[in-house]
Design the sequence.
């Protein structure tokens, strides 16, 4: 195992969120909202059923299609991990809306484990309910890869029910090669590390200190805490510096057509030239 530091073992404070949700009333799924509701973005994903993207946030899942932003989730779940497997097949993790009893395990902490949905609005538990908060999820190669931030473990499941612990490691984010199910690059407080055995061992790399990563057919893209974007075409051995995004990045999505970066207090930025320049796609700063 690499030299990434041991993870913190604590749960986020939920009391303030619970109070805010009580004041909000019931969530209104598929309602049009302002961009200001895209607060504290945890993940971005393409919508395989239609044009646009999904935005997973501290208060639920949203869909962005052109200038239209709609709330998808009925509950105000804190979706820490989110991935789209395919049309009508969504997976997530994080913390449930405390008003939704079926997404809580009696006597256990409010942790979603792995939950699934066919429309993004309603979710059902699949495994590890009350036990795990996956901060990052990826579905590739007929597997689900997840970083269990509660217990500091990198896990893999082939059936979404039974999980194999590959290693204990502290990660912020990770991405799996689109070509090799064993090849993974992860970010942590100690920098970038690579695994060539499905997350069993990790080797630190001499690389930019990217915090968020996403791998597409064009390469492995990363963005640092101060907004510098880079790409690697050799699994993290060498990196080419690209453009910058001003502000603190929160998530990154690399597709064959564009590169998206969510930036705190700014919105979602888009690059259509491989990350050299960025324009504001959705502004959240008013």
Sequence:
């Amino acid at each position: 195992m690499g030299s990434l530091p041991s993870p913190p073992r604590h749960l986020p404070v939920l009391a303030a969120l619970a109070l805010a949700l009580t004041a909000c009333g019931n969530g209104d799924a598929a309602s049009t909202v302002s961009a200001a509701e895209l607060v504290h973005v945890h993940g971005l994903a393409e919508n395989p059923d239609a044009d646009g993207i999904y935005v997973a946030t501290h208060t639920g899942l949203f869909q962005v299609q052109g200038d239209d932003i709609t709330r998808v989730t009925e509950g105000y779940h804190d979706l820490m991990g989110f991935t789209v497997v395919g049309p009508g097949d969504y997976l997530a993790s994080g913390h449930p809306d405390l008003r939704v009893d079926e997404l809580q395990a009696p006597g256990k902490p409010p942790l979603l484990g792995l939950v699934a949905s066919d429309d993004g609005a309603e979710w059902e538990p699949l495994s590890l309910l009350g036990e795990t908060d996956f901060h990052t999820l990826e579905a590739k190669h007929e597997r689900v890869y997840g970083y269990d931030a509660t217990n500091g473990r990198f896990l893999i499941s082939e059936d979404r029910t039974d999980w194999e612990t590959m290693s204990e490691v502290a990660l912020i984010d990770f991405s799996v090669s689109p070509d090799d199910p064993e090849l993974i690059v992860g970010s942590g407080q100690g920098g970038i590390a690579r695994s060539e055995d499905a997350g069993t061992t990790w080797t630190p790399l001499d690389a930019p200190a990217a915090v968020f990563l996403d791998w597409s057919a064009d390469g492995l893209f990363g963005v640092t805490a101060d907004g510098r974007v880079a790409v690697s075409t050799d699994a993290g051995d060498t990196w080419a510096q690209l453009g910058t995004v001003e502000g603190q990045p929160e998530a990154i999505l690399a597709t064959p057509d564009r590169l998206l970066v969510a930036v705190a207090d700014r919105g979602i930025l888009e690059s259509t030239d491989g990350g050299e320049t960025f324009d504001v796609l959705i502004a959240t700063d008013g």
